[in-house]
Write a structure and sequence with these properties.
Helices cover about 60% and strands about 0% of the residues. It is mainly α. It is rod-shaped, with a radius of gyration of 39 Å. Keywords: Membrane, Transmembrane, Transmembrane helix.
């Protein structure tokens, strides 16, 4: 008993609180790691999801920008490659304004067309193209070419095939300018179309 008292009495009094403090610090650290370890994993998972969301938002913004760029830079002739492609019309006829949204993204303005041509122009009337009359229009309709955009998408060779299907009386026509004229009509460029037609000879 005297030996144990001698051992404690030989330890400086300031060392005991220091040892207790060190032990408490170690226990506190171990308990913190034990009970707080899950939070670090949750933080890592949260950061992973935040990074994924950020990347998806960036991809979405890039996709929208790319779509806007394509819609601005491409005409009807570049976006449609088949006879029937122009048959789809986006939008509806307004009862008050004779306007229809066509696939080029341009709104058909009957008043603007009439102001240039001096007569009423109907939406997607192929006879607006110089060189196309009612009979040739029927030929194109029979081949599912019923809109300006669809005609603009046709190559000159395709137009000639349509004419050839009508027999010899139609084969003599020269459709070299028809797709370009239809493209101007589809885009609502009435002044340009009218000026160009003044220089054409029967659509040639």
């Amino acid at each position: 008993m005297n030996l144990s008292l001698n051992i404690f009495s030989s330890i400086p009094c300031w060392l005991i609180p220091l040892l207790v403090g060190v032990i408490c610090a170690i226990l506190g650290y171990l308990l913190g790691r034990l009970f707080g370890g899950g939070n670090s994993n949750e933080d890592v998972d949260l950061n992973v999801y935040k990074n994924r969301i950020s990347k998806l938002e960036t991809d979405l913004a890039a996709c929208k920008a790319s779509k806007d760029k394509v819609s601005r830079s491409s005409g009807a002739g570049n976006t449609v490659s088949s006879f029937a492609a122009g048959a789809v019309v986006a939008g509806a006829v307004s009862p008050q304004k004779e306007e229809v949204k066509i696939e080029t993204g341009v709104v058909f303005d009957a008043a603007a067309a009439k102001a240039v041509f001096g007569k009423t122009i109907k939406q997607d009337d192929l006879t607006v193209v110089e060189g196309i009359g009612p009979k040739i229009k029927e030929l194109f309709h029979n081949h599912d070419v019923k809109t300006w955009a669809a005609l603009a998408a046709c190559s000159v060779e395709k137009c000639q095939e349509v004419l050839n299907s009508g027999g010899k009386r139609f084969e003599i026509h020269k459709p070299g300018t028809w797709p370009r004229q239809a493209d101007l009509a589809a885009k609502g460029l009435w002044k340009e179309l009218n000026d160009w037609q003044d220089q054409l000879d029967g659509g040639k």
